[in-house]
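Quiz preparation item.
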């Protein structure tokens, strides 16, 4: 599973590494162990089953080693073709990182979006939404135009319906809640999911949507003329999309409460029902192991290209906002809801500095440190580690590298406090000393004052 979630590979069974560079081969003590038995055990223990081929390599090993008593099996593991990878039957997923198997993501005990919707039939699904989803999927994954014979074939492919009769007619298929949420008609959403809606509050007034996720996405941020893009044109489009889809994918569908979006003069705010899953904290979302309460819905969204691969959401939001010159996103975990705030104020100077210095900035951690210190005279080592959401050991490495690049310098003994080097601060603050650059960026952020 760990190999499949990475790039695939080969596992050899029956070889003991003694630790001194030598290998020990032995006979398998269990007579029932065959290539078929091993393949079945692996597929029974992984969801969806890992695609493998198992070969009994005992004869080859016996010939090479001149020892007729030894056994060996080779397991050829194919890279996963599922956008969310594989997990164990217990809902835990890991991925191979170097020589280690590390956590990839985990699932909550009960995914409500897997549940079939009673009395839901073909008429509950919007064909225009499904056709849009098919085109998005083809564009995202380079699929052939004739890959599926029908809408139900596509939905079955991404796991949103369970075929009951095998004849391909959706009227006999079991439609999951995830399928209804993504592609349901407005009347079906109102009937089967009462209270689940999206509310958008802007200076122009309030709008309420009882639409499926696909149509909400298209109206709110699917184009340059969409609602959020019109009100917040200076927030990177990718960031708005990521936060919005996170609201739908991670909200608690046991609560009949709306997702609420608020736009005012200073910020864009997203609030979705349901606090973070157990084990997650609003202060450590950058590098935590993702936990899904609605994994089937998340898989469906990824198949449609509405969100990226596992674990690539929060860091993309940080990266997009900071490179645009905006401030850090703010995450707040309440008792029954979760809120994301994005400031509409920013610094054109910082944005332009990052554009010009992009080759010397190797990772997001360095951008975070620069922005944090640009907003204040100095900061403690602990504050910088907290901003990066890194351990003290890792944070020390980042700051040391930045010090060697002459970006930052300690402002107290024992490197307990840090500040921007005066040359770097001056470069940022005076980046537009050329009149040509002043004209080029005039009005970039509208009439909104920037710090």
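Solution:
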């Amino acid at each position: 599973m760990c190999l499949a979630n990475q790039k695939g590979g080969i596992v050899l069974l029956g070889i003991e590494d003694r630790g001194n560079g030598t290998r020990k081969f032995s006979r398998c003590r269990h007579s029932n162990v065959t290539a078929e038995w091993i393949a079945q055990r692996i597929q029974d223990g992984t969801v969806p089953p890992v695609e493998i081929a198992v070969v009994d390599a005992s004869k080859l090993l016996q010939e090479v080693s001149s020892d007729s008593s030894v056994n060996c099996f080779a397991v050829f593991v194919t890279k996963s073709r599922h956008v969310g990878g594989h997990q164990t039957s217990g809902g835990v997923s890991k991925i191979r990182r170097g020589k280690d198997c590390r956590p990839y993501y985990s699932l909550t005990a009960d995914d409500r979006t897997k549940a079939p919707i009673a009395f839901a039939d073909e008429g509950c699904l919007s064909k225009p939404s499904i056709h849009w989803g098919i085109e998005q999927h083809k564009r995202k994954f380079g699929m052939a135009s004739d890959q599926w014979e029908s809408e139900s074939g596509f939905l079955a492919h991404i796991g949103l319906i369970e075929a009951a009769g095998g004849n391909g007619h959706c009227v006999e298929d079991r439609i999951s809640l995830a399928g209804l949420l993504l592609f349901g008609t407005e009347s079906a959403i109102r009937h089967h999911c009462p209270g689940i809606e999206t509310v958008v509050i802007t200076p122009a007034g309030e709008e309420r949507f009882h639409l499926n996720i696909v149509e909400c996405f298209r109206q709110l941020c699917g184009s340059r003329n969409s609602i959020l893009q019109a009100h917040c044109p200076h927030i990177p489009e990718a960031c708005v999309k990521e936060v919005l889809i996170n609201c739908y994918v991670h909200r608690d569908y046991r609560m009949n409460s709306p997702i609420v979006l608020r736009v005012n003069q200073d910020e864009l705010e997203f609030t979705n029902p349901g606090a973070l899953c157990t084990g997650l904290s609003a202060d450590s979302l950058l590098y935590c192991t993702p936990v899904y309460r609605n994994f089937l819905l998340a898989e469906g969204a990824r198949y449609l290209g509405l969100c990226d691969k596992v674990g690539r959401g929060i860091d993309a939001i940080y990266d997009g906002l900071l490179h645009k010159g905006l401030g850090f996103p703010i995450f707040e975990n309440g008792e029954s809801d979760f809120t994301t705030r994005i400031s509409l104020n920013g610094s054109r100077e910082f944005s332009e500095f990052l554009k010009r210095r992009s080759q010397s900035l190797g990772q997001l951690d360095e951008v975070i440190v620069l922005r944090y210190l640009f907003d204040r005279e100095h900061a403690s080592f602990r504050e910088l580690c907290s901003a990066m959401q890194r351990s003290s050991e890792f944070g020390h490495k980042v700051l040391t590298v930045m010090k060697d690049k002459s970006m930052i310098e300690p402002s107290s003994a024992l490197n307990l406090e840090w500040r921007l080097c005066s040359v770097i601060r001056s470069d940022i603050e005076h980046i537009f000393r050329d009149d040509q650059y002043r004209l080029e960026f005039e009005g970039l952020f509208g009439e909104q004052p920037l710090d």
